[in-house]
Write a structure and sequence with these properties.
alpha/beta
Amino acid sequence: MSRKFAAFVATGVALAVVVGSLLVLALGHQRQPEPTAATTKASTSPTTPSPTPTDTPTLNAPPSTPRKPAPDPTAAFATGNKKVLFFSFDDGPDPFWTPKVLQVLAKYGAHATFFELGAMQTAHPGLREQVLAAGNTIGSHSITHPQLTAITPARRHHEIFDGPQSTCFRPPYGASNPKVRADIKAAGMVQVLWDVDPRDWARPGTNAIVHNIMTHAHNHNIILMHDGGGNRAQTVAALDKVLPLLKAQGYSFPAMDC
């Protein structure tokens, strides 16, 4: 009897182990971790988001296949001894400040690249054409200025693929990562950041903006400024001071190839 009882107990234990293992596996499949919903976080990066309409416009239909990668927008100016600086303006187009920036650029025979928001283009039709007619170029700055590293993949795709038409893309706040760069490339654009940030977004004073640019700008640098996102009186005044100073040093100011 003792042997039969021992065999019975051993068989019961084995069955219990098997049943327990099956239950653990089943529960494991049922409780796979769900992805946490991404939220937009405050950034310490300089660019200030522009006020935009509530609706999210769709400017371009997202392609079903990746687009052809864009070339380096400054490559054409990299050869030779010519001194060039690339001015760029973010967060527009703004119906008040963008025309003022255009006036100053024209005054000194300068051109720039305007990284525009899709929502601002929709809210202020006609300004895009005004920028282009003056010999400038337009880059995309997304639709509504989110931090692309902190939103869902679907929204990130929408902000990049459906924003202003261009071959250049500047991520809001300069926030980027491999996924953001992959989407930019798949959309047929190249990521364009900057070399010099004179912090005009913070309105430190006209002279402070001028001093920052004159101190830090070197040949072939991209300079970050803003024609939207708030009062840009200091930006316009600083641009009017810095362009003749740089021009006297032999610099020219072409628009990037976007």
